[in-house]
Amino acid sequence: MDFVWILVAFLCGFVVKQVGMPPLVGYLLAGFGLNAVGMEPDSVLNRLADLGITLMLFTIGLKLNVKALLKTEVWATSVLHTSLWTLLLVGVVSLLGWLGISHYLEIPWQTQALIGFALSFSSTVCVIKMLEEASELKARHGKIVVGILVIQDIVAVIFLVASTGKIPSIMAFGLLGLWLLKPMLHRLVSRVGHDELLPLLGFFLALGGSELFSLVHMKGDLGALLIGVLLASHSKSVEIYKALMGFKDLFLIGFFLSIGFTALPTLDMALPVLLLTSLLIVKFGLFFVLMLKFKISGRTSYLSALALTNFSEFGLIVAHLSVDNGWLSNDWLVILAVSMSLSFVLSTAVYRRAHHIYARRKEQINRYERPGAHSTYETPVQAEVLILGMGRVGKGAYRAMEAEYGNRICGVESDPERIAYLKSKGLNVVVGDADDMEFWESIGAARNDIRLVMMALPAQLEMKSTLEMLRLSGYTGKISAVARYDDECQELIDLGVDVVFNYYLEVGAGFAAESRHLLEEPAPEPEPANA
Questions:
Q1: Which of 128, 264, 490, 521 has the fewest CB atoms below 10 angstroms from its CB?
Q2: Using CA atoms, how far apart are residues 119 and 450, in angstroms rounded to an integer?
Q3: Hey, what domains does the chain have and what are their CATH numbers?
Q4: Are 145 and 131 in contact (CB under 8 A)?
Q5: What is the pLDDT of residue 531?
């Protein structure tokens, strides 16, 4: 059984990737396919799914700024959206049930409200994978989205406690003392080194936090999230994050497969599934309008709302609970599972084109902004070289060219906190999103002075989007980029990049270039032997 579902997951993921869709769509199809042929999920699959979600919450914590949760646009948007969406869905389902559209819609208003509440949540798993793929967790809209997802998780915990009657143990108050352990955890991480002990420590802390919360009858995933938050300010948090990325993505395959094993749909379920899926447009609209009301720019509101336009796995938890309590029929569990799966497919497909859509429709999107909300960008003055992405690679390239070009070289970074740090170090940098058409338009005439754009961006998808923005803005200068693999290098060259640096292969050449001068120096004279 273990081999079969791994094989089917790989084949389905491989096939959908060839047609330009993310592999998770294939994993969803694999789960439904295995269920259709009569296979049953085993405990290993469920354990992998739970482990993947725990690791994901831990890695979210490593990048989470707690202060972001306290911002009005985060918690108020989340609370208001849940309330308005629930009321709206009750109204729609009541009307269609009264019209006799489908017998599945003829349910009490209390049940309608429960379904609406469950579907108001967005999928943490799906959204985080989309943001990671586009390297947008640190962007303005990425931070807002993650904050809203965390608020939704907290609301979910409160609901589950209230509905199941499982009151947290009195010992749960002791969890407040975890903050006192922060200095000890930081010292432990500092001394663990950089080898296999680092990911092992990450596993221990993620699972340990989960088990600790479970012991006091709290949702274990929140424990993993909190431990990650405690380590977020440590200099090794990014290293731990990268060390766990591969494990997390592998284990989350179990989660997507397990959705397909929930139940199989029948033909008469098609109408309620299509109804719920079509309401995703309303979900997007609610998020978009609410964020605009809180004076968030049109682009940030659009990207945040688009990322959140899907249904959450929390809906299945609520459905299971409702079936057990006799509030819902088992058929509704299938309807919610299929609707959630379709929302994943649509969300990931549309979000991959999000920046292209914005570039084409920015006037229509921004017309609803409140005064003063529109994002403005600094213009690089007299810059001949732009370095997009000021991480370790971008910063290293800047330092290497600084002596020759001085202020004619300028870095571009989307994270305001990193911009402030780089400016404090004396670097010539500006805030800007490389895949935002408005950034390139804001440069205006200064774009004619730019001779070279160096893309030191961490994600292939982001570089492809940036290349499209450069083309649409009329840029005609040279372009260079970094990549990790030969096929990525070739893809960028085919898209018009002049030079691609494969830093996995060419770091050796750079090392040799830095060391070659040592051979040109005369060898030291041997010391005379003692008489």
A1: 521
A2: 48
A3: 2-366 (1.20.1530.20), 385-512 (3.40.50.720)
A4: yes
A5: 43
Q: Cα(195)–Cα(439) distance, rounded to whole angstroms? A: 40
> Is residue 71 a contact partner of residue 298, using CB atoms and an 8 Å limit?
no
**Burial degree of 210 (CB within 10 A; 0-12, 13-18, 19+):** buried
Instruction: Establish how many alpha carbons lie within 13 A of residue 473's alpha carbon, considering only the half-sphere containing its beta carbon.
Output: 27
Dump strand ranges (E) for 127-177: none
Phi and psi at residue 404, in whole multiples of 5°?
A: -85, -35
Nearest to 503 by CA among 464, 455, 468, 469: 455
Q: Which two tokens stand for residue 241?
A: 């994050």
Q: Give the span between the Cα atoms of 10 and 297, in whole angstroms.
A: 40
Task: Measure the CA–CA gap between 400 and 158, rounded to whole angstroms.
Answer: 53
From the list 263, 446, 289, 434, the residue with the least C-alpha distance to 355 is 434
CB 209 within 8 A of CB 182: no
Tokens of 301: 């509101």
Residue 521's pLDDT is 60
Strand order in the sheet with 429-431: 429-431, 409-413, 385-388, 452-455, 478-483, 499-502
DSSP string, 173-195: GGGGGGGGGHHHHHHHHHHS-SS
3-state class (DSSP) for residue 125: helix
Contact between residue 354 and residue 303 where contact means Cβ atoms under 8 Å apart:
yes
Helices vs strands, H then E, count in the chain: 25, 6
Residue 517: both structure tokens together: 């001068």
Both structure tokens of 454: 């160096």
Q: What is the pTM of this model?
A: 0.79
pLDDT, residue 291, reads: 94
Selection from 461, 459, 462, 470 nearest residue 498 by Cα: 470
Kindly give the parts of the chain with pLDDT less than 70: 1-2, 160-168, 263, 444-448, 504-511, 513-514, 516-531
Please tell me whether residue 486 adopts helix, strand or coil conformation. Answer: helix
| pLDDT at residue 504 in the model | 65
Give start and end residues of each alpha helix (H) in 270-391: 270-278, 280-293, 298-307, 314-324, 330-351, 354-366
pLDDT at 526: 59
**What pLDDT is attached to residue 166?**
61
CB atoms within 10 A of CB 526: 6
For the chain, helix, strand, coil in percent to 5 are 70, 5, 25
Radius of gyration (C-alpha) of the chain in whole angstroms: 26
Name the residue among 246, 260, 319 with its Cα closest to residue 45: 260
What is the predicted pLDDT for the residue at 164? 60
How many Cβ atoms sit within 10 Å of the Cβ of residue 410?
Answer: 24
3-state secondary structure 38-67: CCCCCHHHHHHHHHHHHHHHHHHHHCCCHH
Question: Residues 43-59: pLDDT tens digits?
Answer: 778 788 888 888 888 88
